[in-house]
Design goal:
The structure is a single chain. By secondary structure, the chain is an alpha+beta fold. Among the domains are: about 90 residues, no CATH class; about 220 residues, 2-enoyl-CoA Hydratase, Chain A, domain 1, CATH 3.90.226.10. Helix content is about 35%, strand content about 20%. The strands form 5 sheets. The chain has a 7-stranded antiparallel sheet with strand order 5-4-3-2-8-7-6. Strands 12-13-14-15-18-19-23 form a 7-stranded mixed sheet, with helices on both faces. Strands 10-9-21-20 form a 4-stranded antiparallel sheet, sandwiched between helices. Strand 2 and strand 3 form a beta hairpin. Helix 10 crosses helix 11, helix 12 runs parallel beside helix 13 and helix 13 runs parallel beside helix 14. The protein is globular. About 45% of the residues are buried.
Length: about 550
């Protein structure tokens, strides 16, 4: 058996891909249980009272302004909200001009959970906004009179429906049109999507299975070099959240994505392949050796980093190993943030509890900054950070601000579908601020929510960015599905720094350019990024 370089990298790519996959498909009701009935006659009075309360609640739900159809054009989503006995049924449709698929179904979402997930407004028009934390903008839906005709008259048959038959041409058309209408910027990626269609459509007759379609679509989006243009092949149900969770628990789930920048793992794999002196595909033995080469060198880099810790102070590790810190012998703080999510042991790396992650992030940064009170400056290392939750990133940033300010802005869609640009204003907490010189270390692995952290931090006067250009993958992943068992992701949002710069597909250039994880550093047992940051902080004073 022989392996391509992509096959060797797949599990490492998956680990970062999952961090960036932000589901925009609605809410699940994992914790909801039906109320139990009492058979005791002694509970008649209580039951009567409960019935009255339930009747009042049901009346309130029936009259709720949430019920109806809601459309988010820049996201290609339609929500259909119906009233239930003690909550709401939510159906999420994925729509284009010509196609409609029922993407996700939540049959009975309690009113309390619904209102925690969506906020209703009736100013110039009726809107329903997906709650996305205290600061980060959420998807905004406008109320529409009825479902689009494509959803009522020509709803696509899914694999779980009776009468389904695999049709590669139909799934290709849905895929291409979804990208064509919602993808943020083909020009930025140097891709002629119309030309890609003409080249691809002639080969559809050769596709007879989902596996072949998956490979075909992978080749179609590869030229985008977009880490958030994702493909996953896994069994799908009406509960897409649950389907994705199960898929991510299986490390053998087929997935695909590419990147703007070379990641550390790719650099190391290239080193190993170059040492073979051959461009042939890797044998099974060589693939295993390549994985060991990558793992051992990553361990080497991490050991070198933590070797900078002052032996008299020690290293603290929190958030399920994703956050660690120490003080150097130069009295400079070092804070490692490995991701912006997944801070609880045993939790899925994608569908994590955002509120829990934010709470852990807040508790951890408070503890770390107390330890750093007497330091001369701070180094924050996000070179291994593939992303996670925007809310977590913003929770960290607030502790480095002296006053409220705009830290970035954001909009979705393009052309007629574009949403208004929304400025995001953060305010600092009342205590535990760190306003001393701070260096943020970045690399080609720094992506998504970690890039948001970087542009927000770069707006602050005491901060400098050191390292390599970041991944250039800012947009949340807009999750879509085909009629077959294929999920795909799209970049449909634009993030701008405080000067209006867009780094999508380009990455954030460091203020001080320093390569990461070079052979010379690994052989010499030093970290040039850390050394540069220490020198910068010393010179700052």
């Amino acid at each position: 058996m022989r392996f391509t370089k992509h096959a060797v990298l797949s599990r490492y790519i998956a680990a970062i891909t999952w961090f960036s996959l932000t589901l925009l498909i609605g809410c699940s009701d994992d914790d909801h249980k039906k109320p139990s009935r009492s058979s005791s006659s002694a509970s008649v009075s209580s039951s009567s009272s409960s019935s009255a309360a339930n009747s009042s609640s049901a009346s309130s739900i029936a009259a709720s302004p949430y019920a109806g159809e809601w459309y988010a054009p820049a996201y290609g989503y339609v929500l259909s909200v119906s009233t239930q006995a003690d909550g709401f049924g939510v159906k999420t449709y994925s729509v284009t001009e010509d196609y409609c698929l029922l993407q996700n179904v939540t049959p009975n979402l309690p009113q309390e959970k619904f209102e925690q997930s969506y906020s209703y407004s009736k100013l110039a028009k009726e809107t329903l906004r997906k709650v996305n934390g205290q600061y980060a903008p959420g998807v905004e839906y406008e109320k529409i009179a009825q479902l689009p005709s494509t959803c009522t008259e020509d709803l696509q048959t899914l694999k779980t429906d009776s009468g389904y038959a695999f049709n590669a041409e139909r799934d290709f058309e849905i895929f291409w049109h979804t990208f064509n209408e919602l993808y943020i910027n083909f020009e930025l990626r140097g891709v002629d999507w119309d030309e890609a269609y003409e080249e691809a459509v002639n080969s559809l007759g050769d596709i007879h299975t989902e596996e072949e379609l998956f490979e075909f679509l992978s080749e179609l989006i590869a030229p985008l070099g977009d880490g958030h243009a994702i493909l996953i092949h896994a069994p799908l149900s009406q509960n897409l959240d649950e389907s994705i969770t199960k898929a991510l628990e299986d490390e053998d789930t087929p997935n695909f994505s590419t990147n703007t920048q070379l990641r550390l793992y790719e650099k190391l794999l290239n080193e190993y392949v170059a040492s073979l002196g051959s461009d042939d595909e890797l044998t099974e033995e060589q693939a295993a050796e390549a994985e060991n080469y990558i793992a051992s060198n990553v361990d080497n880099i991490r050991e070198t980093i933590f070797g900078y810790a002052d032996e008299n102070v020690g290293i603290k590790v929190r958030a399920a190993g994703e956050i660690a810190w120490f003080t150097t012998s130069d009295n400079i703080g070092y804070l490692f943030i490995g991701s912006m999510s997944d801070y609880t042991e045993g939790k899925s790396t994608v569908i994590s509890d955002v509120a829990v992650d934010v709470a852990i992030a807040e508790e951890t940064i408070n503890e770390a900054l107390k330890d750093f009170e007497g330091t001369e400056g701070l180094i924050i290392d996000v070179r291994f950070n593939g992303g996670g939750q925007d809310q977590v990133s913003l929770s960290f940033v607030r502790h480095f601000m002296s006053q409220p300010q705009v830290v970035y802005s954001k909009f979705a869609g393009r052309g007629d579908l574009a949403t208004p640009v929304k400025e995001v204003v953060l305010d600092p907490p009342v205590d535990n601020l760190y306003l001393k010189p701070t260096a943020v270390l970045v690399s080609g692995d720094t992506g998504s929510a970690a890039e948001l952290f970087t542009i927000a931090m770069s707006s602050l006067p005491q901060v400098t960015i050191i390292g390599e250009p970041t991944a250039g993958a800012f947009s949340d992943v807009l999750v879509k599905r085909l009629t077959s068992d294929i999920i795909f992701g799209i970049s449909n949002e634009t993030y701008l720094d405080t000067k209006g710069n867009n780094y999508e597909g380009v990455g954030i250039a460091a203020d001080i350019s320093v390569a990461f994880g070079t052979p010379q550093e690994r052989k010499g047992g030093y970290d040039n990024g850390l050394d540069t940051a220490i020198d910068w902080i010393k010179a700052y004073h």
